[in-house]
Amino acid sequence: MVMLKNYFKIAVRNLVRHKGYTLINLVGLAVGIACCTLIMLFVQDELNFDKNHRQAANIYRLTIEIMENGRIDKAAVTSPPIAPELKRNFPEIKAVVRFSNNTRNLIRKESTGMYADQGFFVDSTVFRVFTFPLTVGNPRTALVEPHSIVLSQELAKQYFGNANPIGKVLEIELDSIYQVKVTGVLAAIPENSHIRPNYLIPFDLLKNNRNNWWAFGFHSYMLVDDHFNPEKFESKLPAFVKKYMPVPAGSPPPPSLHVQPLLNVHLDNDISSQISPPGDLKYIYLFSVLALFIILLACINFMNLATARSQNRSKEVGVRKVIGATRQQLIGQFLSESILLGVVSLVIAIGLVYFSLPAFNELSGKVIPGQLLKNGPVVVGLSMLTVVVGLAAGLYPAFFLSAFKPIQVLKGQLSTTTKGVVLRKGLVVLQFAISIGLIVGTAVVYNQMEYIQNKRLGFTKEQLISIPLNGQFGVAKANTIKNEFLRLPGVVAGTVANTMPGNRGWWRTIINLAQNPGNNAVGFVFETDFDYFSTMDIQLADGRAFDTKFPKDSTQAVLINEAMVKAFGWTSTKEALEKHLEYNDNGLDFKVVGVVKDFNFQTLHAKVEPAIFAIARNNVGYLVLRISPDQVAQTLSALQQKWNEFDDRHPFEYSFVDENLNNLYQTEMRLGKIFSVFTALAIFIACLGLFGLASFTTEQRTKEIGIRKVLGASVGGIVAMLSKDFLKLVLLANVIAWPLAWYGMNQWLQGFEYRTAISWWIFGLSAFIALLIALFTVSFHAIKAAISNPVNALRSE
Amino acid sequence: MIKIENLEKVYRTEEVETKALNKVSLEVNEGEFVAIMGPSGCGKSTLLNILGLLDEPDGGSFKFLGTEIAKFNERNRADLRKRNIGFVFQSFNLIDELTVFENVELPLIYLGVGASERKEKVEKVLEKMQIMHRRNHFPQQLSGGQQQRVAVARAVINNPKLILADEPTGNLDSANGNEVMELLTELNEAGTTVIMVTHSEHDARYAHRVIRLLDGEVVMENVREQFTV
Fold first, then answer.
1. B106: nearest CA in chain A?
2. How many helical (H) and strand (E) elements, i.e. helices and strands, does chain B have?
3. Mean pLDDT computed over A130-141
4. Which of A91, A184, A279, B98 is most buried per CB count within 10 Å?
5. Is the ipTM of this complex over 0.85?
6. Closest residue to B111, CB basis, from A324, A326, A411
7. At what angle do helices A760-787 and A418-454 cross, to 10 degrees?
8. Which CATH number do you get for residue B174?
9. CB pair distance less than 8 Å for A407 and B49
10. Tens digit of pLDDT for each residue in B92-114?
């Protein structure tokens, strides 16, 4: 204890005395720990998804696997009858709940109506399975009555202010208009819950497909008992599917059913059609590695500086040894010093984290609350991190310093051992290799984002706006509005469509060659009008586009894309023409009149999938307009005015297609931003270390510099001499970093079907940046040493 | 107290091998004051370091208080050292980050002495060295003579049987130097054995016996009577 007090005392005095050294270490370690903490919070948040549900461990999601175009596709969807029928068949299931896809509906109170997003048709069992506490209302009965609605707090506030909404009536527009009574208000749902409803309406209000075994557009979850064995359960499912979903011989097999634990849902991005975009385990690993790198950089600074300035400490070591300190005691002393430094850094780091959390949330798209820092596990984690950092940083210097022979150091015979110097240089190389790797990584991510934004998608995404129709108009009315819009001066072209490029989760359908159901392909269906290809600027590969000159086009013609031609195994677009296709079980037969060139209607992560285009006959989802680039604001307000003439119930809404498409790459954009920020910090930490190291080596060479100057060396020559050593290390770091960075980033790029090559200039650039920064850092000391009067240097010896 | 026979110490660098001590034998009895003299590089500091258990010999025998310690390991030597030997250096070697009081206290901490006892002992010795008024100063705030008094205080704080002094007056002016020599003489008269390395014939006169080294070998031993004027 006394010993510790003594260590502590001398540590504090040492830190205070060598302010520059202390500052470099404190700043480095604090920034390192802060980065690490932020990343840890991020990872923690990702790993804790859905833990807010009390019975999370006993909740499973139903998924399907289906063979499509020769590969297995996994999707988190089921058809409505499956889950209730499963419950009837298997006693281990205690409850099931079905969610529709999230819907967007017009909700009105008296004369004011707003669209609300993130609504779900759900079974009343939702509160039995999931933990969605209600601030008011009874979860047992809330959704039992078909004409009821449960609102989020924000929504309740929007419509009712602070008044109690229970029992109040709202009007919701579904397939028609319903009066629904508010029966509950949802308490705030944690951000890291994969289902975050804004409002819930009873499944009974859903009119279409309720009993359709093949309508795979719903998400089903089941609450099971404690003895549930997922493998055993899954083994019973093929028989279930066979019984309830029989298929005629020769047609494709039905999908197979599977279960997935709720706690695995968020990080499984292998499964399509999820209720909300999943996270990515890859990024968790990536960020963890990033955190490790940054903390490593800070630790290396400490090690390097501590050993570099060992001469300053050597006398103390010698004296203590002479007086009777054992090596273990000295190791203990140096370790307590580094841990003390770690603790002080931790305190600063917590302050940094606290203040940077809002910015980090912005950057990462998360909502991590500051209070999380007070959580037990986080506190324990941080304390452990500090001790580990203290030990990691202090262990080598402790062993290094405590090994000094007392007589040698007291006689000033301490020679800078080559071992120490080599290690220090090695660590600097490692630091810069990491920094350079990060620079390369950041550059590649940005390059790819640039590529994505500028890639020709096969249609022109600029100046294209999409106006959602939310099903309130039939095709005829939509066309009328479109024609009215086309009269406006800023509108260049217009079309209608059931879906827009970049939309998530719309259905694929099996498309059969007529009279030959065995020959089929799975593809996306576009229902449009005669102006689709010209408005979207999609090129024709063969045949012709829809044409009003051919009246039969509206009911008996389709176009397909090149991917569909391949999916059917046809060798040329010519071969596809005049073929007859069937889809949608309606027995209609369509003739292929043309083939369009492939265009990217999904993210560039995926290849262009097979698609078929037909003229819409019932509802369309979107009105699509190409507007002129001039006077966009006027055009938009003119559109709104015109819209209100047709429909004063529904607010006019629109979005720009290019922006919607960019939103598809939010994860990657965030990755890019997070990467660049942490790269900058990593470089900063590495430079701090280099700065400190340069100051010590320059100090050690003061006499040499003095002699050289006396002998006639120029300032430039001395700066060059001092800088050269460090620049060599940076160059070596480049050589090490390049292949690793190339390999890593190449792996990342594999996730994109459409990607840039990693070009040589990225490596050149990263080398240049690293060299420039290193030169700048080192030359400060070098110039200072070089311009000082040599007499001073020599006199001090 | 100390008996060494045929002690050898060799320093090796990559190319050269230097015999710092070549079969040195000598004996020091309890209560003696011995000076070791010789030109630079004759091996006297090496000898002192071995005597102080700071360095190991490469050959020969070294009995300290009747125990053969030539083959002791670092830990055992450290233990023996902190209980029995006090050091005084030419360059004082105080720890800059500690105050006078704390510097003197340090050996007691390593010996595991309790706080109140430490305070009492340190104050007593500071009193004796007449630097009590400087107890809260840091070494740089003291003159050379004062620093060396602190160093002596630290060397004697745990009543060592042996004090090893390596040119204790080397960095001091003659007045301060004499003061330190008086201190060592006093300690010796109180029963502590003192072995001192010095260049100074003047300082050597305080010793009972002078051992002269040249090129790692003992070339002459004389007792005080033979060289005092």
1. A323
2. 8, 10
3. 94
4. A184
5. no
6. A324
7. 140
8. 3.40.50.300
9. yes
10. 888 888 899 989 998 888 888 88
C-alpha to C-alpha distance for A301 and A20, rounded to whole angstroms? 13
| Owning domain of residue B196 | 2-227
CB atoms within 10 A of CB B21: 27
Residue A2 has its nearest CB partner, among B74, B96, B109, at B109
What's the total number of domains in chain B? 1
Identify which has the larger pLDDT, A98 or B98.
A98
For residue A608, report the phi and psi dihedrals to the nearest 5 degrees: -65, 130
Answer for the pair B28, B161: CB distance below 8 angstroms, yes or no.
Answer: no
Q: How far is A694 from chain B (nearest CA, A)?
A: 25
Q: Tell whether the torsion through CA atoms of A89, A92, A96 and A101 is positive or negative.
A: negative
Chain A, window 16-45: residues with a beta carbon less than 8 angstroms from a chain B beta carbon:
17
How far does Cα A152 stand from its chain's mean position?
A: 26
Task: Give B27's DSSP letter.
Answer: E
Buried b (16+ CB within 10 A) or exposed e, B111-125: eebeeeebeebbeeb
Instruction: For residue A470, give the nearest of A671, A588, A343, A619 by alpha carbon.
Output: A619
Residue of B96, B166, B167 to mutate when probing chain A, most A C-beta within 10 A: B96
**pLDDT of A32 above 70:** yes
d(CA B20, CA B214) in angstroms, rounded, equals 10
CA distance B189 to B31: 8
Say yes or no for a CB contact (<8 Å) between B55 and A407. Answer: yes
- Given B81, B89, B107, which is nearest A410 (Cβ)? B89
With bands split at pLDDT 50, 70 and 90, how would you rate the model's confidence at A797?
very low
Q: What is the DSSP-derived secondary structure letter of residue B115?
A: H
Cα A58–Cα A59–Cα A63 angle in degrees, nearest 5 = 135
A319 interfaces chain B, CB cutoff of 8 Å: yes
Token pair 């959602």: residue: A468
Beta-carbon separation of A325 and B75 below 8 A? no
Where chain B has pLDDT below 50, the residues are 228-229
A392 membership: H or E segment, kind and range:
helix A376-402
Q: Taking CA atoms, what residue in A is nearest to B79?
A: A324
In the predicted model, what is the mean pLDDT of chain A? 87
Contact list in A for residue B55 (CB cut-off 8 A) is: 405, 407
Which residues neighbour A457 within 8 Å (Cβ) at sequence distance 6 or greater?
A501, A599, A600, A661
Q: Where are the domains of chain A?
A: 2-45+281-451+669-795, 56-265, 464-663
Q: Do A321 and B54 touch (CB under 8 A)?
A: yes
